[in-house]
Amino acid sequence: MKRAHKDLLAHLEGQVRARGWEIRREVGSFIGGLCRVRDRWVVVLNRRTPPEVQLAILEQTLKRLPA
């Protein structure tokens, strides 16, 4: 993974966590996104998804979450 991707992923993940949302990295037959787990909303990212896709998922999630 390129250094720029790592830095941007870390930045976006920090913004999501700063808003009180949990981020989970899992492996499975999904791409990722916002998911309801029991009574909480969680951002789920597939570990095997390319960094560019993970960045897009985090950007879309940040647009949907209240500030």
Mind sketching the topology for me?
Layout: H1 3-18, E1 22-26, E2 32-37, E3 40-46, H2 51-64
Parallel strand pairs: 1-3
Antiparallel strand pairs: 2-3
Helix pairs in contact: 1-2
Structure notes:
This protein has helices spanning 3-18, 51-64, and strands at 22-26, 32-37, 40-46. The protein is an alpha+beta fold. The longest helix is centred in the N-terminal third of the chain and has 16 residues, at 3-18. The protein starts with a helix and ends with a helix. The chain has one domain. Helix 1 packs parallel to helix 2 (51-64). The mean pLDDT is 91. It contains two helices and three strands. Strands 1-3-2 form a three-stranded mixed β-sheet.
Q: Give a quick account of the main beta sheet: strands, pairing sense, barrel closure.
A: 3 strands, mixed
- Unreliable stretches: none
How are helices and strands ordered from N to C? HEEEH
Fraction in helix? 40-55%
Q: Give Rg in angstroms.
A: 11 Å
**What spatial order of strands do you see in the largest sheet?**
1-3-2
Average pLDDT rating? 91
Structural classification = alpha+beta
Distance between the termini: 29 Å
Question: Structurally, how many domains make up the residues?
Answer: 1
Key traits:
alpha+beta
Task: Please sum up the structure shown.
The protein has about 70 residues and is of the alpha+beta class. It has helices at about 5-20, 50-65; strands at about 20-25, 30-35, 40-45.
